[in-house]
Give the backbone structure.
Amino acid sequence: MSPSVRLQEMIRVIRSARTQGEERGVIQRECAAIRAQFRQADNGGRSHNLAKLLYVHMLGYPAHFGQMECVRLIASPRYNEKRVGYLGAMMLLDENQDASLLITNSIKNDLAHSSQYVQSLALCTLACMGSAEMCRDLAPEIDRLLRASSSYIKKKATLCAVHIVRKVPELGELFTPAARALLAEKNHGVLHGAVILITELCERNAQTLVQFREAVPELVHIMRGLVTSGYSPEHTVAGISDPFLQVRVLRLLRILGRNNDTASDAMNDLLAQVATNTDSSKTAGSAVLYETVLTVMDIKSESGLRVLAVNILGRFLLNNDRNIRYISMTSLQKIVSTDHNAVQRHRGTIVDCLKDQDASVKRRALELSLALVSAINIRSMMKELLLFLSTCPPELKSHAASGIFNAAERYSPSQRWHIDTILHVLITAGADVRDETVPNLIQLITNASQLHCYTVHKLYRALVADISQQPLVQVACWCIGEYGDSLLQQGECEETEPIQVTEDDILDALETVLQSHMSSPATRGFALTATMKLSTRITENVDRIRSIVSIYGSCMDVELQQRAVEYNALFKKYDHMRAAVLEKMPVMDRSSMGQTNGESGGGGVQELEPTKPKQPEMVVAPQPASQVCDLLDLLGDPDEPSLLGGPLGPGGAPLGPAGLMPGSAGGDLLYLLGGLELTPTPTPATAPAAVTVYDKSGVVLKLSCERPLDASQTITLTATNTSDHDISSLTLQAAVPKNVQLQMKAPSGDSLPARSSAVVTQTVLLNNPNKVSLKMRVRLSYTSQGSPFQDTVQIDSFPTPGL
């Protein structure tokens, strides 16, 4: 291929290359020839060579050596060379390259050229790749061209001004007068550019926004003319007169009418006219209607107009185009909280979208359906959602299950219905539920004492039918361990079908779980604990239970092995304590659980209500909410410490995975490992050492630590008053790192008499499972001589616990 080959011939040769290597060879030879011709001083084929180089650049090959040739061609007096030069500048140059600064003067000269076509080339290039420096230098020229007589130039200059405003927002004031004048133009291209320019100016300057609110009547007039105009072959698209300009005008009206009653009132009638007269059967009409809906929802529109907008979105749900259905549900999702009743009218159509084949439409329909659930329609909506859960794609099961749980918790008509719904989800999609589902359901079942028999029968049937759903199996094992005796009492549970269950049947089911390869270590732990608890609830198979437990004393899983060893020791050495240790769990309050549905433990900061003294002879006024919120100020870095209020479990102790509570009768399990002999000789207790952590204005605060038990530690705070004035309304508040759980017991009082005649003590329980370095901040709040005082103390080291 000779160096002088034409562009068309070069394209044909490149396309005919059979391999990538052959194509690369052709391009390398042609680039070498172009390079050689660029070095010649007098070359009449510059534009021809640069055009070929631009095609090479479009194919992804390097063409940076043509940048200076672009600068030379732009400075050429010939139009055909200028055109290729400006095209090359837009493709090969950007604002970060020094070569772009060399064309600034050429662009300025061409903006003043007598030919509108040369001016157009300069305007297009500046709008495409103009840097901030170029925009500042050439902005006055653009403002001058905005007032030109030619509509062709004004259209180009308007788009160039938009680029300048985006690059240098402070130059927007320069174009404001000209932009307002452009609204009187009849040319749709100029109007389109003017509306875009005004939109950019209003979004970047609040004062400009106020100025252009006066132009709302003009924009309404332009929009009404577009809606009522007849067919125009130049502007009509699918029966809609210039839908692109209509969309831009509606978007500008939305910005101008936001949070402004006057501007909103001026456009209400127009929006109603657009909403009723626009045909939605074509995509162009749907685009205009969608922009109308967004405008109605964003301004202060009338209630009837908002209902009309929701109905338009409801019609979009029936459209065959999935994209239109998707954007309709996205918009309804945004407004369902403010116009809930209007959206509810389209509930049936939204539910039908759950059956759509498109995964994105299904996801949007699911989110919108969950948002439409209320106390009135909870039963019908839940029926549809559960049906969807059984057939939905695997990637949506987790989201659907979580949404169903939240809706059932908020609007459940009864506890039985709530339990049935969650069990249905566990049976259908148990492997896709969140980790907190199991403890939440256990807490729900525990509180529904009248449904224990019904629940354990239903869970037993589900366990026998399928053990592949691990969360379901865990809940079933827990319930069988707690309420397994209800399975053996025939005829007492009238709400379920009669079923004949023997002790051997129950133990067979638990053994199946223990031996199944599908059971996780946590599930086996639930099953083993349930088996152990049944030893106090059945009478004829205790030896079999002892045999099952002893087998797992040599299990490979350390957690399961330790649990089995402790249970064996309970059988052998402390059989007299077994009934007390394995008694039924007490009713659990939601506030006593470590987590609630949808929350993650230890991640955030919670408010801690100050505890109140238990004194029957006096009533203490509650702490003001502002002072409680001020406890957050104790945290120097909000990402490090965390405030944890309320008990960790029933009785203030953390719940273990086996359902046993350290600190209760079952707490002795910590000392039941086989082979350990307890020393009968009592060891005299030593009082914990106390250190002074705060001493100011007569208030002295001392801290003492008791011997830690595993991850738990008890701290006692003792406050005294050495001043001559009494202190009242004493409150102690504490903050610890987020990995440490804290529980503050009730103080012994809230007043300190003068001269150390009495003390106030408060016990703090710390649970430090990760054994992190302990730190604590304590806030003291009290009133002395009628004036409130508040101070904070940082405790970085703790005294040695007493032995």
